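FORM 7B: Structural annotation worksheet

SECTION A. Query
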Amino acid sequence: MDQKLSNLHRSLIVVSGLVLLISIFVPIWRIELDAPQYPEGLKLQIFANKIGGDVDIINGLNHYIGMDTLHTENFIEFTLLPYIISAFAVIFIFVGFLGRPKYLVFIILLFILFGVVSMIDFYRWNYNYGHNLDPNAAIIVPGMAYQPPLIGYKKLLNFGAYSVPDIGGWLIILSGLMLVSVYGSYKNWASKIFRKREPKIKLIGLLCFAVLQSCGVPESPEPILLHADMCHFCKMKISDAKFGAEIITAKGRIQKYDDIACVLEEIKEQPDIEIASFWVSDYLGENELVKVTDAFFLIAEDFRSPMRGDIAAFKSEVEVNNYAKKFNTKVLSWEELLMMER
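SECTION B. Predicted structure
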């Protein structure tokens, strides 16, 4: 017998349809681009019916490397997607009013299929966008493709590309999760599955956690490549490893600097920057980066750093004290250095 869903379950299905409708009016996905010449970053926002954000600037940059320019009218998806999402929303609401579990299973499977097809289409769009390059472009790097990541972070020349769901994307995910949770609650999945397969579930959970950790923000710094990497602040190529620094942002972006003074200026100009970890070059090491909180600092004109901040970092307390005596200056912690700069 096809028993009806409870009033609570039916209400949640209706709400999932309303949540889905809202996603039409806000950006579903975003691709952020970051480079030294654009410290505030560039953003491409994908709505259900259009492309938004810094489209004109991105199109201008794409012209030089032979990539197609982006125009809403060139994508049939922007014509179809609002109707598809609206249709799903109406169906969800209708099923909510009917309250029949068999219809719930059908719309969940259909919605999952829609999600899979959408991501495949998005990947295809990214692939064509990054590989079909104009052979007569002003800038050609042999063997180089510019395909943005499907999700996550990727380095493209001196640009960092970060691709994640936007508000609308999270709303679509939330809508799907609400449907699954309703069906799971109706079938009492949680108690049945956990009792029978508790050890396996725990193992899967640990594996998923490990995968997520490995795909997250890098825990270690990236080596500074002399005469190749560019300072994120002053836009000069890094030529001296003794005074370098590196920030890993909360989004996993890696920003390198040729002088600790450049980092201090960056922090002044962008006080809201979210830093996951912060590293500085050991003055006596061979291009060795240490955590800023584990380093000792000296300021002396004799250091003559690239941008004349004349700040050196040391990982050894013994060595920094020797240099402090030599240059008749005071050893500083990172916190003290920040306070001086303020």
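SECTION C. Observations
The two ends are 72 Å apart (CA to CA). Residues 241-341 form one domain.

SECTION D. Sign-off
Analyst initials: ____
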